[in-house]
Amino acid sequence: MSNLRSSEEEKYDMSGARLALTLCVTKAREGSEEDLDALEYMFQQLRFESTMKRDPTAQQFQEELEKFQQAIDSREDPISCAFVVLMAHGREGLLKGEDGEMVKLDNLFEALNNKNCQALRAKPKVYIIQACRGEQKDPGETVGGDEILMVTKDSPQTIPTYTDALHVYSTVEGYIAYRHDQKGSCFIQTLVDVFTKGKGHILELLTE
């Protein structure tokens, strides 16, 4: 895995353990198994220790993140990074568990922050959220020319509660996320393809 940091002078030490957790609701989400297969392949290629759980309830989303945090903090070997994939139906800021109940994304993000997970302080934490964020459908727009994404990062003198975290959503606020009932999610399938074939730091891969 490459670095979240864009500066060549500041790079994360990726020599330690790389840990991944995938929580996926497959109920009424055709194509989810293809996404899980693709993610498993990606984590193998990127040398991650991967844990996957299918059809968690809303409470189990929270419990699995907390168990993941406890397992990380209890390890004696160095940890390099954590990669969390959350896939379910959803609304803005919420995921729907297999039981139909909702869990707040902010509560899930708290599990690995600097207050609750000391082993991941100043370590990259990547969240991939494959879920709808509303009911609007994006028909797309035709544009010309190249789009350039500029990313900058200041260096704070103190460490706040949330640092070194990257939240990547499959769609923008208020819109649905597209998923093929046989080929899987457009976002997850493209993510795996780029991450397993491309080279460069993570921001470059995500921009691609």
Automatic annotation (TrEMBL):
GO terms for biological process: cell differentiation; positive regulation of neuron apoptotic process; proteolysis. Residues 155-197 form the Caspase family p10 domain. Coiled coil: none annotated. One of its GO terms (cellular component) is cytosol. The keyword Hydrolase applies. It is found in: Cytoplasm; Nucleus. Keywords: Cytoplasm, Differentiation, Hydrolase, Nucleus, Protease, Thiol protease, Zymogen. CDD domains: CASc. GO terms for molecular function: cysteine-type endopeptidase activity. Residues 29-136 form the Caspase family p20 domain. InterPro entries: Caspase-like_dom_sf, Caspase_cys_AS, Pept_C14, Pept_C14_caspase, Pept_C14_p10, Pept_C14_p20, Pept_C14A. Belongs to the peptidase C14A family. Heterodimer of a large and a small subunit, both processed from the precursor; the mature active form is a p17/p10 dimer and the intermediate form a p20/p8 dimer. This is Caspase-14. The gene is CASP14.
